[in-house]
Specification:
Layout: E1 3-8, E2 11-16, H1 23-31, H2 41-60, H3 66-80, H4 99-116, H5 129-133, H6 139-175, E3 180-185, E4 188-194, H7 195-219, E5 222-223, H8 238-252, E6 257-258, H9 262-267, H10 270-296, E7 307-308, H11 326-350, H12 360-384, E8 390-391, H13 393-402, H14 411-414, H15 416-429, H16 433-440, H17 445-451, H18 454-457
Parallel strand pairs: 5-6
Antiparallel strand pairs: 1-2, 3-4, 7-8
Helix pairs in contact: 1-4, 2-3, 2-4, 2-6, 2-8, 3-4, 4-6, 6-7, 6-12, 7-10, 10-11, 10-12, 11-12
Length: about 475
């Protein structure tokens, strides 16, 4: 490999001759051979958008030569069009605040802009990474602005996928509205419920999680670009800050705005933490549903097997014919990872000190990783599992008819203690609730038919009481 020699304040260093990055990026590559993970594509996009907006603003304010600005903007447009993405080579675990990432962007843009002007890479006399590309900026306002912008680029896609899943769950709720099943609490038989009610609950849980994500996302719209090092705006100014944010809004179509308090947004990554927490809540709701689908589909012969999930792949390398709930299993794992990302973000946000949180690189990577895998998992869950699942109504009715939980409807008529004794006897003897109640003369046959109507039990109120609440009089054979 051929090399060129570049110099920074620490001295000289060899840089691959073909590289668009420069000496500070090369030092970061040497310093941080940690994970082989690189910056999220959305973070690269957001960072380059910030650099392009800054070049336009500085040009319009007369601070940056128009020819140099034009070259930087052209270089930025190439990267935004997915060229030179392989030149962003710094590990996600790097020096605090994201200085290495920022300089990586500055150097790539400077070298490509220099080529546009007819000069070779590695010669910064005409387009300098710090003096020109980074003009009016600091890592301390570029990186948090890019992080927020990158999360916002994934915000609408995440909400879109989550809302589509809610629509699918709602469609299932409508399709299953008359299909009866045994409700369960503590993993034990409980009173009857319909599959429609169960899936309607799933849809509502997801909807509430989406509301949290939507509300938290609004906080990300405040950008601290122009705050520079500590929030004072040194070497920037209000006119520059307003212009940069205006350009970013124009590029992205996102309703971003200058931060109301530059010091807050420079000191704290709490807005990102709030967004991460909302994603965690959505992941918790999603993971619970995936757990339920795994339980309800367990079997097919030795478990509940009340629902049938689409078969997407063979389930075993040793047991022929076995089919596993592969998609919900994947969803559970993704949800665990989203929760782990949130824990890392919380610790890193708390570790901020004085005028800056230097743990921003790990915050950004975890938040963006969580957003990406969550929306992808939701999409796959919907398209490869939820949309194709069906109910085994015969199996569900078989289990419901065998359950003693329906005896709960007897409480208003014969009391808790008598009902409990009936249920206990049914479990012990294998006889039906109906037969035991009639044998003991606890209710007459007509009333009992109304009371043990499992369909009526799903509609609330006192079953068989014709809208009247409270205990009915027992038959003459019964002692209250």
């Amino acid at each position: 490999m051929a090399f060129r020699t570049e110099r920074d304040p620490l001295g000289e260093l060899s840089v691959p001759a073909s590289a668009y990055y420069g000496v500070q990026t090369a030092r970061a590559v040497e310093n941080f051979p940690i994970s082989s993970l690189r910056a999220s594509p959305d973070l690269v996009t957001a960072t380059v958008l910030v650099k392009k907006a800054a070049a336009e603003a500085n040009r319009d304010l007369g601070r940056l030569d128009a020819t140099i600005a034009s070259a930087i903007i052209s270089a930025a447009d190439e990267i935004l069009g997915v060229s030179l993405r392989d030149q962003f080579v710094v590990d996600v675990y790097q020096a605090g605040a994201g200085t290495s990432h920022n300089m990586n962007a500055n150097e790539v843009l400077a070298n490509r802009a220099a080529e546009h002007l007819g000069f070779p890479r590695g010669v910064y006399d005409h387009v300098h990474p710090n003096d020109h590309v980074n003009m009016g900026q600091s890592t301390n306002d570029v990186f948090p602005t890019a992080t927020r912008l990158a999360l916002l680029l994934g915000y609408d896609p995440l909400l879109h996928e989550a809302r589509a899943l809610v629509e699918s769950m709602t469609a299932k709720a409508d399709a299953f509205r008359d299909m009866m099943k045994t409700g369960r609490t503590h993993l034990q038989d409980a009173v009857p419920i319909t599959f429609g009610q169960e899936f309607g609950g799933y849809a509502a849980c997801l909807h509430r999680g989406i509301d949290d994500v939507a509300a938290a996302g609004e906080q990300l719209r405040e950008l601290n670009i122009g705050a520079t090092a500590v929030g004072t705006g040194l070497n920037a100014g209000d006119d520059y800050r307003t212009a940069v944010v205006g350009h970013l809004e124009r590029y992205t179509g996102l309703p971003v705005r200058p931060a109301e308090n530059l010091f807050r947004v420079t000191q704290s990554m709490g807005d990102v933490l709030a967004y991460s927490g909302a994603m965690r809540r959505l992941a918790v709701e999603l993971g619970k549903i995936a757990n339920d689908l795994r339980l309800l589909s367990m079997g097919p012969r030795a478990g509940l097997s009340e629902i049938v999930l689409p078969a997407v792949q063979p389930g075993s390398s040793i047991m022929p014919g076995k089919v596993n709930p592969s998609i919900p299993e994947m969803v559970n794992q993704v949800c665990f990872q989203v929760m782990g990302c949130d824990q890392t973000i919380a610790l890193a946000c708390e570790a901020g000190q004085l005028e800056l949180n230097v743990m921003m690189p790990v915050i950004a990577w975890n938040a963006l990783h969580a957003s990406t895998i969550l929306r992808n998992a939701i999409r796959v869950f919907r398209t490869r599992c939820v949309d194709g699942l069906t109910v085994d109504t015969e199996r569900a009715r078989e289990l419901l008819d065998r359950s003693t939980a329906a005896a709960t409807a007897l409480n208003p008529y014969i009391g808790y203690a008598a009902t409990a004794d009936v249920a206990k006897t049914a479990v012990k003897t294998g006889r039906s609730i109906r037969d035991i109640v009639l044998e003991r003369g606890l209710l007459d046959r007509v009333t009992l038919d109304r009371v043990l109507s499992v369909e009526s039990m799903t509609r609330g109120g006192i079953v068989g009481a014709d809208g009247q609440r409270g205990r009915q009089q027992p038959t003459k054979e019964t002692t209250p």
